[in-house]
Design brief:
The chain contains two helices and no strands. The chain is mainly alpha-helical. The protein has one domain (3-64).
């Protein structure tokens, strides 16, 4: 029963919302605006393709307690 994983999962869900919906790409480490042509597509891929599944996974693992 580790509450830390649940907190990290919620933090990842908040980051997924900030990056994917609000387009806050400054939260991404190593992001170079000059190297990326589609800032919106990068935000959607990083937010919904990485942070959202990881956050959901950690929250579900905490709730289910496998």
């Amino acid at each position: 029963m580790d509450i830390g994983l649940f907190a990290i999962g919620l933090l990842l869900l908040a980051i997924a919302y900030a990056v994917g919906v609000k387009q806050m790409t400054w939260l991404l480490a190593g992001f170079n605006e000059k190297a990326v042509k589609g800032k919106k597509s990068l935000a959607k891929i990083a937010g919904f393709g990485f942070f959202l599944p990881m956050g959901v996974f950690l929250v579900v693992m905490r709730v289910v307690e496998v």
